[in-house]
């Protein structure tokens, strides 16, 4: 079932791109495939990134609610859900995007892990005739780690009145942990997956930059409203 839903369609699409668009260069075909996947999944990625950005904007109020109702978990949960509804936030959207990506990544891993299968399926298994895609690439692992760090820093945006709450500490920790994880994972995987990772992260950086710009004006309006009303939900 997994092969029918994910592996075979992705393989067929990659073959078509390889033959008709990518000049029989597998690396270029992977770049086009990655961009196509990200465009198709853009609504999911956009909503997830937007929700995460907004979540960080209202983090001071989240921490105040947790402190105010620290002895009443039920009331704390109600107040938090009311805050999320007010800002049209889905606190679980980041998990949704992970679930969407995993089958695609596993399908690509299954496709690229077998060098003999690649050689039988594609005449040219290099990127621009230089990078062998069936073996790991330290260079791509380093680039992916650096881009992951940039994406993490961008995702924080320009925050004011940052709190020292547990959520904020976790986000900051992940900014430094994710690049290391990317490097450790990709240094063991075929370079083909490294290209997918790098292009996908570049797409995410552009998307995050766009979201940050869009939210700046909304955040200014939110801060004015919060100052005028003296807080959100009575916190």
Automatic annotation (TrEMBL):
GO molecular function, one term: membrane insertase activity
Biological source species: marine sediment metagenome
Transmembrane segments: 26-46, 89-109, 129-150, 170-187
Record protein name field: Membrane insertase YidC/Oxa/ALB C-terminal domain-containing protein
Keywords, sorted A to Z: Cell membrane, Chaperone, Membrane, Protein transport, Transmembrane, Transmembrane helix, Transport
One GO CC term on file: plasma membrane
Species classification: unclassified sequences, metagenomes, ecological metagenomes
GO biological process: protein insertion into membrane; protein transport
Start and end residues of each Membrane insertase YidC/Oxa/ALB C-terminal domain: 27-213
Location within or outside the cell: Cell membrane
Pfam families referenced in this protein's UniProt entry, alphabetically: 60KD_IMP (PF02096)
UniProt keyword Cell cycle, yes or no: no
